[in-house]
Amino acid sequence: MVHPSRRRFLRWSALILGTAVPAGVLAACQAPTGSASPTVAPPTQPAAGAPAATAGAPAAAPAPTSAGAAAAQAPGGEWVVAITEDPDTLDPQKTAAAVTGTIYRYLGDPLVAKDFDRKIVPGLAKSWKVSEDGLTWSFDLKDGVKLHDGTPLDAAALKASFERALTPELKSPVAASLLGPVDSMTASGQTLQVKLKKPFAIFLDNMADPRIAPVSVAAAQKAGDQFGRQPVSSGPWKFAEWQAGTRVGLERNLDYAWAPPYAHAGPPAISKLTFRVLPEPATATAAFEAGEVDQLSSINPTDVRRLQDTGKYDIQKFLRLGVGLFLEFNVTKPPFDDLNVRKALNYAINKDDVMQTALDGFGELAYGPLPPSIWGYWEGIKDYAPGYDPNRAKQLLGQAGWQPGPDGTLRKDGQPLQFTLMAQATDTWAKSAQVIQSQLKQLGVGMEIQTFEFGTLLAKEKAGEQQAGFQGYTYTSPDIVYLWFHSSNIGSGLNLSHFNDPKLDQLIDDSRTSTDDTKRLSVYQDIQKYIVDQALWVPLWINYNFLGLQKRIDGAKLHPDGFMVLQDASVRPK
Q1: Which CATH number is 192's domain given?
Q2: 454-502 pLDDT, tens per residue?
Q3: Which domain holds residue 183?
Q4: Which pLDDT value is given to residue 108?
Q5: Helices 427-443 & 339-348, crossing angle to 10 degrees?
Q6: Residue 58 CA to its chain's centroid (Å)
Q7: Is 27 helix (H, G, I), strand (E, B) or coil?
Q8: What DSSP line would sit under 381-437, residue for residue?
Q9: DSSP string of 360-374?
Q10: Which residues on neighbouring strands pair with residue 548, listed in sequence order?
Q11: Torsion-angle region of residue 298: left (phi > 0), alpha (psi -120 to 50) or beta?
Q12: Do 535 and 404 fall within a single domain?
């Protein structure tokens, strides 16, 4: 039996690592799988370094689009989205399962939203401001917002929802990390004031997360443990049905009139949104080709070209919000307690060969802990990080005392240089491991491969049993460096390298407390350089997510955070 606290951790980790393979979070164990939804016209990728949030002055709302107006005049139809697992609950405050977050993109509303340039714009809040010391946030809410049960969503209702999320008895796996160091909250009319114990740089950015969307506390109290099966929120669609293991159904909210500025203000045109549970990629792809599924958010690289060649579907792609695969060293275990050995492997591996073999070329090379798709990425990391140079690898290994024996195997004190890589038995990871194994063998380094299911792999890596392991992550914020590298997350969190370094901790703390975006960018640059200097990873590849869409939809737009914006979409009959 899995202990409840461990189960909650695995669900939270799956959200980041992506191993649950839901729409909304790419599977760390698979190649290009989709993040929520396809698009008719993919938006331009924002420039690296563009501020992720504008704290302070309220954002202006552009006029509704003509596409939105057209959509509002043509209601009707059903749109079927394939998801890879059944939600554990639809109470967003009680789960970290990515599939619930995906559904809440449509079932709920965030306090603020991100537009197609990833700038913070009004959501439920029409304006906001923060005090000069970064400790007090004030949000003025839109008038006339109603929850799906008809009750007003004013500041008092929002405060009650946040307080419920933070209640220890609820044991929310996400609320504390999203809301941060809350000291107190006060509500007056349409104004919510949140006071923090210390500055929390990503607070506003977190308020755009669907998992913190407000729920009806009155409905939750009335339903008790069943609230997760009959959720009440405020989004453009509302809950209609849940057939366990089969489908989750939503119906349009006819009262909806408070969309973010990138969508029209009124109710959506699509009458029904159905999330069909199809765990096996092959089954989901077959259902998509048969017309039983309209939106396929998980296309394997082997199917991409075949589906494109038919000309029957809109196939869209975007770069993963995270690093798809990296080899991570446990710095407390030989031989990777030696910095020169860790550096040597960074020079020894030909990443391009790994990416071409594992992803069929559908990806980009990784150079550090952040990808170009996340704000905070430093463009200079490409030149700063080690490149493929086997001669330099041999030099570093020689400096560490490893010399070739008669058979070419590197030895030190009579012992061969060999280690075990822990991984999952999935296609892209297996292919990557086999290429690396072959490359290192040519250098005189032995690598064995052990595979485990996700929960066992994560438990072993947390406990520090591994010498090295494969991992990957999906995350929208550079604050992933806190989760992955801060020493407070050794053993209980995701610091799987078990690297305990006060300098790195301080850099990460500075990135979380500064409210100056220019300073934060500088700090993130220093963090990326320092992680490369310490050779904690061999970053390998960043995959593209491929999304499939039936052509009977108009007005659908892919958000750069990887989900489909459907408020302005309309569908034609099959």
Answers
A1: 3.90.76.10
A2: 889 989 999 999 999 999 998 889 999 999 999 999 998 899 999 999 9
A3: 111-222
A4: 98
A5: 110
A6: 26
A7: coil
A8: HHHHS----HHHHHHHHHHTT-EE-TTS-EEETTEE-EEEEEE---HHHHHHHHHHH
A9: TT-EEE--SSS-TTS
A10: 296, 315
A11: beta
A12: yes
Taking alpha carbons only, the member of 277, 261, 307 closest to residue 102 is 277
In this prediction, residue 426 carries a pLDDT of: 85
Give the pairing of strands 363-365 and 557-558. Answer: unpaired
Q: Amino acid letter at 292?
A: E
Assigned token pair, 193: 């004031």
In this prediction the pTM is 0.81
Tell me how far apart the alpha carbons of residues 402 and 203 are, in angstroms, rounded to a whole number. 48
Confidence of residue 96 (pLDDT cuts 50, 70, 90): confident
**17-64: per-residue pLDDT in tens?**
654 332 333 233 333 322 222 222 222 223 333 333 333 333 333 333
Strands 537-550 and 325-329: antiparallel
Establish if 401 belongs to a structural domain.
yes
Instruction: Name the residue with tokens 């006029």.
Output: 63
Same domain, 505 and 376: yes
| Same domain (yes/no): 500, 364 | yes
DSSP 35-51: SS---SSPPPPPPTT--
β partners of residue 538:
327
List CB contacts of 284: < 8 A, sequence separation 6 or more: 82, 84, 278, 293, 296, 298
CB-based contacts of 290: which residues, under 8 Å, 6+ apart?
none
The amino acid that residue 118 corresponds to is R
DSSP assignment of 133-180, as one string?
TS-EEEEEEPTT-B-TTS-B--HHHHHHHHHHHH-GGG--SSHHHHH-
- Shared-domain flag, residues 504 and 388: yes
The label of the residue with tokens 């010498």 reads 467
CA distances from 200 to 158, 486, 510, 523, 566 (A): 20, 16, 10, 15, 32
The span from the CA of 292 to the CA of 315, in Å, is 17
**Hey, what amino acid is at 140?**
D
pLDDT tens-digit series, residues 125-164? 999 999 999 999 999 999 999 999 999 999 999 999 999 9
**DSSP-derived secondary structure letter, 267:** -
Give CA–CA dist 559/434, Å, rounded: 35
